[in-house]
Design goal:
It contains eleven helices and eleven strands. By secondary structure, the protein is of the alpha/beta class. The radius of gyration is 18 Å and the shape is globular. The chain starts with a strand and ends with a helix.
């Protein structure tokens, strides 16, 4: 069947159209995305602004039309951190659903981590053993670990690249302050994951980690999804130091960095480095599947 998965993230709205069936991998057929930057459309009360809601409603209405034009029979729609954490989340969802006719749902943070873990498990299979999975989004950092399809531990921390850029870097706070904040927050939650034992495979996924790996020398997306891509901590640590002295225009020139995300790369790199250091990881393997695939796979399992 042809299905659409509509992901309303803190940075981007992304519709992925796939040809899917139970027992096989979803095959991408079409992609439609827009940089909504919802995390930057919050007022002082942490409500999504009228402009942010209007941009979101228009995109979702257009995305539904796009999905139907491509022949989708089902559209799975979900929102993550920016909408989840907004004080007017219920009103935002109601406006979107009324205008679009979809059933946009807000994913809880631990569900986001759990479903991302499911996607990574299906990609690497049982031979990967105990998996550690890390995902830096615009609003949150997801951590999960386990040896089955359902992780033993699934956590979501408010350490997204967009959130930290807005609340720390753009607010004029120093890089050492941000690094201490991130490391303290990750360290506080790391014990629950580390108690389960060492990882047989440590994996990162989603756009921020993919961009960081590309900057540090990993293969381009044009080389295909089956090429092994790895982010090395030594390279990342050097990048973190270099980014302190760079402006956004220079960062946007790096391979794998889109102009609308360049301003978040420094914060994302700080989170990635802290995570690797605190879990004593010298490298993270990049997985091409993430939350959208996890949502789709769980839906197919239930059919």
């Amino acid at each position: 069947m042809r299905m659409g998965v509509l992901d309303i993230g803190s940075n981007t709205g992304h519709l992925l159209v796939v040809d899917a069936f139970r027992g096989g991998p979803p095959v991408p057929a079409h992609s439609y995305k827009e940089p909504l930057r919802l995390a930057e459309h919050l007022d002082d009360e942490q409500a999504v602004t009228a402009e942010g809601v209007a941009r979101l409603v228009k995109y979702v209405v257009d995305a539904r039309a796009e999905a139907e034009d491509k022949g989708c029979t089902t559209i799975l729609a979900f929102a993550t951190s920016a909408v989840r954490d907004a004080v007017n989340a219920e009103d935002v969802i109601a406006q979107v659903n009324q205008a679009s006719g979809l059933d946009l749902q807000v994913l809880a943070g631990d569900d986001e981590a759990r479903l991302t873990f499911l996607a990574v498990r299906r990609w690497f299979g049982w031979s990967a053993g105990r998996l550690g999975v890390f995902d830096i989004g615009g609003g949150s950092l997801e951590l999960a670990a386990g040896s089955d399809e359902t992780p033993d531990v699934a956590q979501s921390l408010p350490l997204g690249a967009g959130r930290l850029t807005r609340e720390w870097i753009q607010a004029g706070r120093t890089t050492p302050e941000l690094r201490l904040h991130v490391r303290s927050a990750v360290a506080e939650q790391a014990g629950a994951i580390l108690r389960g034992g060492a990882f047989d495979r440590a994996v990162a996924t989603s756009k921020t980690f993919r961009s960081l790996a590309r900057i540090c020398g990993a293969a381009s997306s044009h080389d295909g999804q089956y090429v092994r891509r790895v982010l090395h901590r030594a390279d990342l640590s050097q990048l973190v130091d270099d980014l302190v002295t760079m402006d956004v225009d220079d960062i946007a020139k790096f391979p794998g960095v889109s102009p609308d995300r360049a301003h978040q790369i420094q914060a994302g790199a700080i989170v990635a480095e802290a995570t690797m250091a605190l879990f004593d990881l010298t490298e993270l393997e990049i997985c091409p599947w993430a939350l959208r695939e996890g949502v789709l796979l769980e839906h197919l399992d239930g059919l």
